[in-house]
Write a structure and sequence with these properties.
Elements: H1 2-32
Length: 34
């Protein structure tokens, strides 16, 4: 059970990291594109 929780926490952290990276990238494009 603990391993399942650790796996879910890892996946959540990975998803949040990718989401924040995508958000920064979209803001970057928004600044340099019309």
């Amino acid at each position: 059970m603990i391993s399942v929780i650790n796996y879910l926490q890892y996946r959540a952290a990975e998803w949040l990291f990718s989401l924040s990276t995508f958000t920064k990238y979209s803001y970057f494009l928004h600044d340099y594109l019309p």
